[in-house]
Write a structure and sequence with these properties.
Rossmann fold, 5 strands
Length: about 150
């Protein structure tokens, strides 16, 4: 199954959130944003369970940038949907994210609005708070409840 993750306020959070250790100094100028603690382990667990890990973001970060940014953390991303790709495939009308157009089964996001869109358009969304230190446990618990291991 394809599982997608939002970036802003989901995998990259400001404030009192713990982050993964910084990248080597020579990569920090190119990739200044740090991933939230737990991202690496969660992605690796999902992949080891046979799932593909995608990024679905409304940002205009290029796919190449996102792919290489995650690779610099040792994480391989199977697919990337940025705002340009979303508009090209799903259009500008309708929900802000439309996972069925990309065969994504579950999406993880911080926005309750995306969850409401999911309910009305028939896709699953796990909502996590940017301030929740146990966010990975919530994702795993909800995937377990959906019988997605």
């Amino acid at each position: 199954m394809r599982i997608s993750f939002d970036i802003d306020d989901t995998l990259v959070c400001e404030g009192e959130v713990q982050n993964e250790p910084p990248l080597p100094y020579w990569l920090q100028w190119l990739y200044p944003e740090r991933l939230r603690v737990g991202t690496k382990d969660l992605f690796r667990r999902r992949r080891s369970d046979g799932h593909s890990v995608w990024i679905y973001t409304t940002s205009y970060r290029s796919s190449c940038y996102v792919k290489n940014w995650f690779l610099s953390y040792g994480l391989r991303i199977d697919g990337i949907v940025n705002q340009r790709r979303h508009e090209k495939i799903a259009g500008r009308q309708g929900p802000s994210k439309f996972h069925p157009a990309f065969s994504i089964g579950v999406h993880v996001d911080d926005a309750e609005g995306v969850a409401l869109e999911g309910k009305s358009h028939g896709f699953h969304v796990v909502v996590v708070s940017p301030n929740d230190p146990n966010w990975t446990e919530k994702v795993l618990s909800e995937l377990q409840a959906m019988r997605i291991r």
